[in-house]
Design brief:
Radius of gyration: 20 Å
Number of domains: 2
Largest sheet: 7 strands, parallel
Helix content: 25-40%
Strand order of the largest sheet: 7-6-5-10-8-11-9
Order of helices and strands: HEHEHEHEHHEHEHEHEEEHEH
Number of strands: 11
Length: 312
């Protein structure tokens, strides 16, 4: 009976590894951490800080050898720091729409600098803590079939830095939010909600009905991203590595935009493209940072031919 209980408990937890990811969890959501494993020999300041945070939160701390960590994680670069945690439930479509509705109301904004710290935080509360730089103008990032967990983690990290309300991705044919993605995200997976939806095209349509404009990244688009107004409520959509946006996703975009390129490379890595798009959005939302072109209101998709993506 005891072995069955242990297996059941293990099935309800997941392993997060890496100094930044584990430290972020202990700082922001210590109630989710069940146990911390530290490799023998790690006595540096960062490992000692993690041990202090874990013990302060009442988490078990265990020193283990490298072979045991390898049994759990294989060849993963774990840095000798692993945490066994309660998984953070992803948002569904209803939770995402509830957060957007809350974020669209300027009264829902709260002072900047607050952080999401609980796995049970409501979408409305998350909206209140993430849209302070642009009250009433939420920013979402949607990944249309991105396959690589490293790209997913890198996109999450930049999304967190740019105040994205949530990252949206389809349930099928997409990278999992696993330990690899969380390590690359360096803690952002614990502060930026991930909404996993069944039908991305339908979700984009519902977000449009809620008042957001959809901006898709497309290498062959007529407009550069700087020519489109990104200061209002927006969803930035980036396609899969190599194949770009799907045709159905492209049809739901109000604008298709490209990143300027002076070299011979046809497209950028998806996480690099996300970073450039998000920081152009951030630039426009700062005082004096307006769009260069005239697409300040509604618009129709352009450059909707088959081809690469700005984030290929």
């Amino acid at each position: 009976m005891r072995s069955e209980a242990v297996r059941a408990e293990t099935a309800r937890t997941e392993l997060i590894y890496g100094v930044h990811a584990v430290r972020a969890l202990l700082t922001r959501s210590p109630q989710r951490v069940r146990r911390v494993l530290l490799q023998w020999g790690r006595q540096d300041a960062r490992a000692q800080q993690i041990e202090r945070l874990a013990r302060a939160a009442g988490c078990a701390v265990e020193r283990v050898d490298a072979e045991r960590l390898a049994q759990h994680l294989g060849d993963a670069v774990h840095q000798g720091v692993v945490a066994e945690v309660q998984p953070l439930a992803a948002w569904d479509e209803d939770a995402l729409l509830a957060a957007v509705v809350a974020a669209m109301a300027p009264a829902s904004a709260s002072p900047a600098g607050s952080a999401v710290t609980s796995a049970t935080t409501t979408p409305a509360a998350v909206a209140a803590t993430t849209i302070a730089p642009a009250a009433g103008a939420p920013l979402l990032l949607a990944l249309d079939g991105v396959q690589d967990p490293h790209n997913l983690g890198a996109c999450l990290r930049t999304a967190d830095a740019c105040g994205v309300l949530a990252l949206v991705m389809p349930r099928d044919r997409a990278a999992p939010l696993n330990a690899t993605a969380r390590k690359v995200a360096a803690g952002a997976a614990e502060s930026t909600p991930v909404a996993i939806v069944t039908n991305l095209a339908r979700t984009l349509r519902l977000l449009k009905e809620a008042g957001l404009w959809i901006v898709g990244a497309e290498a062959e688009a007529e407009r550069e991203v700087r020519e489109v107004d990104l200061t209002g409520g927006r969803v930035l959509v980036v396609g899969a590595e190599g194949t770009g946006l799907r045709q159905l996703t492209r049809r739901h975009c109000d604008w298709l935009v490209r990143l300027p390129s002076l070299g011979a490379v046809e497209s950028l890595n998806v996480s690099v493209a996300c970073g450039m798009l998000l920081y152009e959005t951030l630039r426009q939302r700062r005082p004096g940072g307006t769009a260069a072109g005239g697409a300040a209101g509604g618009g129709t998709a352009t450059g909707g031919t088959a081809g690469g993506t700005a984030g290929g």
